[in-house]
Amino acid sequence: MAIRVLLVDDQPLLRTGFRMILEAEQDIAVVGEAGDGLQALDQVRALQPDVVLMDIRMPRMDGVEATRQITGPGRDGPAKVLVLTTFDLDEYVVEALRAGASGFLLKDAPANELVQAIRVVAGGEAMLAPSITRRLLDKYATHLPSGEEPVPDTLHTLTDREVEVLKLVARGLSNAEIAADLFVSETTVKTHVGHVLTKLGLRDRVQAAVYAYESGLVRPGAQ
């Protein structure tokens, strides 16, 4: 079945452009559009999309609050949110990730990246591109812990190998890249990632990356 996508952006021309790109794909169907967060909530309830392509800055209700309501407790459907941001990266992207977004994408990303991101998010994975993640974390380095703060108690529930995996997830590495780095199989990595998410009470890799930085486990700029 085709991936059902809802386009949310206050600029009609951008929505038209995204629609043209996505409707050219056989496995993706654009089921609706919305110009602000309130309309997005109505459309999610009515159309039950698989993925919501969500702008951040919009009138009436911004993308952060809309994301929180779409993905939060008591949500009406299984919709995943892929946040759209500008080249300079919105200051609200971190908040959107905390609110439950499954990833973020630059508005000027090539068409193939947009299509791939939607497929990745629809498949239940997080869209965590290393280059964009590093730029985002560099931009907010002054707002993140320095690494000198006490480590949260929850982090002590992880094994040494799970901590290693969490650090690599925070750097934006894929399962295949982590497997190559640690000389283990991808299946083993998936198992470790699953344990990390379960033990820390996190939903996906995006929240794991945010947790790693906010807890001080990983410092911005560190390799």
TrEMBL record:
The keyword Transmembrane helix does not apply. Gene3D superfamilies: 3.40.50.2300. CDD domains: LuxR_C_like, REC_NarL-like. Keywords: DNA-binding, Phosphoprotein, Transcription, Transcription regulation. The keyword Transcription regulation applies. One of its GO terms (molecular function) is DNA binding. InterPro entries: CheY-like_superfamily, NreC/VraR/RcsB-like_REC, Sig_transdc_resp-reg_C-effctor, Sig_transdc_resp-reg_receiver, Tscrpt_reg_LuxR_C, WalR-like. Residues 4-122 form the Response regulatory domain. Residues 151-216 form the HTH luxR-type domain. The modification 4-aspartylphosphate is found at D55. GO terms for biological process: phosphorelay signal transduction system; regulation of DNA-templated transcription. This is LuxR family transcriptional regulator.
